[in-house]
Design goal:
With 497 residues, this protein is mostly beta strands. Strands 27, 29, 30, 32, 33 and 34 form a six-stranded mixed beta sheet that branches. 41% of the residues are buried.
Amino acid sequence: MKCEFDFVSEALEPRRLLSAVFPAGFQQTKIASGFGTLTSSTFAPDGRLFVTQKNGDVRVVENGVLLANPFLHLNVDTYSGRGLFSIAFDPGFAQNRFVYVYYVRQDNANPNVKDNASQARLSRFTASAGNPNVADPASEVVMLDDIGHDSGIHEGGASGFGADGKFYIGIGDNGTHANAQDLSVLPGKVLRLNLSNFPNIVPADNPFVGQANVRPEIYAYGFRNPYTGQIRPGTSNFYINDVGENSWEEINQVQRGGDYGWPGTEGVGGKPGEIDPLYSYAHTSQFSAAIVGGAFYTGNNFGAAYSGKYFFGDHVQGFIKVFDPATSTVGNFATGLVTPLDIDVGPDGNLYYLSYNESALYRITYASGANRNPVAVSAGSPTDGLANLSVQFSATGSSDPDNDPLGYSWSFGDGSPLGSGAAPSHTYTANGEYLAVLIVSDGRGGSAAASPIKVTVGNRAPLASIVTPTASTTYQSEQTIAFSGTGSDPDEGALPD
């Protein structure tokens, strides 16, 4: 089975009923949900998690809470696999507030169709000095434009800064296999750029600088879809997960000037002049595969057995495994996951991953003594109304499988101090839409977040009523049934058809 790993074909892959299984002592907790179509995630140096969505939104998860307003919205082309792919933070982010995003810019005259003038680009934005959770949309500086694409798939997106200060980014072959070996174009390559020297962003020591009819940004070539990966911390060694086609998935360590074989080779080829993957695995007879994630474990929570190891997953087969760079061996870690997409190690030493089908963020923790995470359930009423709306919240239904006493923390979403207790009330004074989130903790390191409660202030919800058919209506096969209803709004009265 072919695996294109674009956001159209992947959704149609056959799915199994899954139940997550981890090594003893490990468990997962859903931290946030309600995203749009997910594409990637990256931790900022200050500990916030930034999540990119296909529609061009960059979302922020702060202290376990998904913020209601996007950090940034880009006008992206959304045909097939196009959209926003990844975000990276400048090494000097704490001082300059620079972030870099890779996306397909929209062709306003002919948007969201296969054959138009949209092009992939790499841009820099600056976070607001007054509100770090928002970027200045007028701050865009286009670092590299017209990267090119052909069919709207295989855009790549893995990126990051090396210890050498240079920026590395994987560009997919865009569905045209020949691109991967054509050094006059950027698709199918890993690029190396000196973004701090804009507009002269090509490092003088790149392998193809000065060669005729060769793009000097290219650092390595022969890739199909380098969608995810990570630079090994403290080095410039870029590990790329290259999504395969019919047979093999690959982990490649990018080397200067290296040819990684695509399209002539998939998996280990052993051909002179080509670099074989560090690790590859075959598709199964029943299910396709799509390698994703990619995170070196740098925390202290999981023990020495996982220190420095490379976590990767499979979007279709629903697993996370661990690659040991020292021995080139792979061990199992988790199975039964729902469409994992990207993997990150948080500043708290825990592992985080995105679930594509669930549109959710999960946290994986290790609990000594096999402590299990609690379950968080929240409710609120009313959830709409005029300003000075008083909402009664409740944590009824929350529980702990170990019967530990629970602590409650409420983020009301309007910038007010956190609330506490199982049944707090909160008054919203300003119009707007707010997400209230409950986090429960068991006092032994276990915690969980409930699904956000949306509160709308300044507008009351309309009321709907079905007139016909009535609850007692019966019908026969092929009979035509007439439907009718009415709607009224507490602020506007009866609503028109």
